[in-house]
Design goal:
membrane; about 240 residues; transmembrane; transmembrane helix
């Protein structure tokens, strides 16, 4: 590799590219957490209540102390009609939010991720067709989306989970790591993405300038051909006129 004035900037851009994939991993962790929560909550809820929809006061009366409010034991599903349905909707909504944030991390690299953003109608994360026209405001929008994911994940994933299941996953500890790692990655990811996008902008601008230069050369060449043809026609006309004389 040739060492010159661009060596350190290139190395830094490579580091920023690598960090983006670390940030993707930081989003995959809460995605896995919500899948774990959904599976554990629904399974425990059904084992406790023997149903998925409705209230069974006779089951509540067996709790110690008896209670018909709060959450079903060992879950984060509230004790009311449709609690399991609403909790499941929250799980799937959070999974969709995380997938949108993942797509906004990778749109610059993979066209599929950009198409996901377009499919989800998220113009705040992707609103331009050309890389050189992208603004940085959507990076901040994605950062706030991640903060929302951190807040909901941190508030909901610890409730009623059993870390002492023999041979099982220590889900609350995993959720804690997922939340804290994602929170810590947010500011570093903003910085890395700004450098990555700026590099992409420079590449796009270079391509645009090269295309403009080619168009200008082609236009100049065409103009030269026209001028040559015009000069040849004038010379031929003069020659014809002199021969007649």
């Amino acid at each position: 590799m040739q060492i010159d004035g661009q060596t350190l900037p290139k190395i830094w851009i490579y580091i920023c590219h690598l960090w983006i994939f670390v940030a993707v991993g930081a989003l995959i962790m809460p995605l896995i957490a919500w899948i774990l929560i959904f599976a554990e909550n629904i399974d425990t809820y059904h084992k406790t209540m023997h149903l998925y929809l409705g209230n069974d006061m006779s089951v509540y009366d067996t709790f110690s102390p008896p209670s018909d409010s709060g959450y079903v034991n060992e879950t984060n599903i509230p004790k009311h009609l449709g609690g399991a349905v609403f909790a499941s909707c929250l799980d799937f909504a959070m999974i969709i939010m995380i997938l949108i944030s993942l797509a906004s991390e990778l749109f610059w690299k993979f066209p599929f991720a950009k198409n996901v953003l377009l499919m989800m109608w998220t113009p705040g994360l992707w609103n331009e067709a050309n890389m050189d026209a992208i603004e940085y405001f959507f990076l901040i929008a994605n950062a706030f989306l991640k903060i929302f994911i951190v807040a909901v994940t941190g508030a909901q994933t610890y409730t009623g989970l059993t870390p002492d299941t023999p041979g099982g996953v220590d889900t609350p500890l995993f959720c804690l790591y997922a939340t804290m790692i994602l929170l810590g990655s947010i500011p570093l990811t903003i910085i890395a993405q700004m450098f990555v996008l700026q590099s992409a902008k420079h590449a796009a601008w270079g391509g645009i300038r090269a295309k403009q230069d080619e168009e200008m050369k082609a236009a100049a060449k065409a103009e030269g051909v026209k001028e040559g043809q015009k000069a040849a026609a004038e010379a031929a006309a003069k020659k014809s006129s002199s021969s007649k004389k």
